[in-house]
Input
Amino acid sequence: MQTKKITAVLSLFTALGIGTQVQAQESAEELARQWDAVEQGGDIPLNANSPTNNTWRQMREDLGKGREPGPINVQRWAGNYPWVGMPTMFHLPVALTPEDLAAGQVEIAFMGAELVGDPRARTWGPAEMRNPHRSEVYHTWGEMAMPELDTGRTALSEMVAVDYGDAPIDPFGMERSIPEIRKMVREIASTELANGKRTIPFIIGGGHALMYPDVAGVADVYGKGNVAVIHFDAHADYSTADFGRLVTHGNPVRRLLMEDLVKPEHIIQVGLRGPTSTDLETLDWAREQGIRYHMMAEVEKDGWQKVMDRVIKEARNSAENIFISFDIDVVDPAFIPGTSTPEPGGLYMRETLPLIRRLCAETNVVGFELVELRPDSDPGYTTMLNAKAITRQCLNGLAVRKAGITKANYLNPVMTDDGQ
Ligand SMILES: [Mn+2]
Output
């Protein structure tokens, strides 16, 4: 019995390509020579013979086997608080295959992408988004879903949303993960719905190098130059200091432009104030390109309302499709200590929420990412509380749009006036 079990486990490992493969024996001298190449300025070799070389991206082949396609509700109880049950994004049902997305006519698919590859941690973001804590736990899916008290909409009841799981991530470097993330985003965005729209990927990160595969994956579907990026960030993210990397968390904007995936005039930046990846020279470059930016100095000079109106107007006059790239460090560190590059003097939550809601209600958002979460330096849980509120505000805006409300800056009259 025991032997039978072990044999079964071993054959499973063989099927997955794990462990049982005999590694080609290389001599100590040959192995040492790999370092010589690096010492002489060469590239870092990967060991293609390693039995675990590809396990992180080896997809299970039985994801849809033996069941009808469609979202799977993994919660046992029809109505309960999300600290009871399986942790998924907002307690949502899960989907595992493109067939699930199509069969369920899924409008929003959450996806985690814990992209690493930088010495300062940006880890646990997707896991913490699924982790129910404190007051935001009341915001859930199912019978216990509650409305937002500004629009009165209950997005997760009015729209079909799922947790699509995480992108495959090479835990020791990011170059190999990036094409895999792009593929998964493309897979979500390719799903055609009966209403003529497509599933909107909501990506939770992970470092901001994600902007490259996330926007590229959406542009693969909607076409090069057909997607505008509303980029919330303390930093401009067009650094030239890439240390030889194809893309880093400091330069995804530059990379998207280099590959003509996005037109410079379709980059609209909000909240810049940090000197890393931004200086007078890089701003000169951005102005020459035609990039639009709204720094905190502009907010100081003109006030938030004017800047917010400019962003909405520019977004509406840009490409037909909008991608929101939200680097959590755009918000003041008072509200979000849990990020790796905090910059004081940022947006308040009271400023952030209406702009996110309005963009998602008043423009055609086809993708959303929330990146640079670092919950291990979030002692008061404010970062995750606010990250979830920002995400919910976009869902809220999408529900307003779905309800056919076209009024600019819509707020439910009951919420803004007690009628007395
Ligand atoms: Mn960034």
Summary: The two ends are 77 Å apart (CA to CA). Residues 1-15, 17-22 have pLDDT under 50 and may be disordered. Residues 208, 233, 235, 237, 327 surround manganese (II) ion (CB under 6 Å).
